[in-house]
Design a protein that fits this description.
By secondary structure, the chain is an alpha+beta fold. It has a domain of about 80 residues: NE0471 N-terminal domain-like (2-Layer Sandwich). Helices cover about 20% and strands about 25% of the residues. It is built from four helices and six strands. The protein has a three-stranded antiparallel beta sheet. The longest helix has 8 residues. The protein is globular. The two termini are about 30 Å apart. The relative contact order is 0.17. It binds zinc ion (ZN). The site of zinc ion has 7 residues, from helix 2. Zinc ion (ZN) binds next to helix 2.
Amino acid sequence: MWATTTSVGYHEKTNAPVLGESKPMPQPHPRNLRRRDDGAIEVDWSDGCTAAYTARLLRDACPCATCRDQRAAPVAASPLTVLSAAELAPLAITGMQPVGQYAYKIVFSDGHDSGIYTLEYLRELA
Ligand SMILES: [Zn+2]
């Protein structure tokens, strides 16, 4: 087997790590997006990884300010809580639109559409 040489981004003389210079880490990007029969979104990433995202996973990980606040201060679950019709309906992803080159806006069937998911974040969720 051949040894491969890889550039690791260290300064050639001091051996100190070099940050933010000429060789940024390549950010994987989606090559292909598709909706599965069960409603989950499947993404083929440029680095060869394929990941599936269910509507529930993405909704619970919504990075918008409102959802972050809700997760930071969760309301204690009450057995008397009555679920609304929207909460009882199966959650689905109704839209996924690119925002610039590095993020997607995801629209859910409950009407929530303020989450902007960066590619980096989607990879973390994979
Ligand atoms: Zn949100």
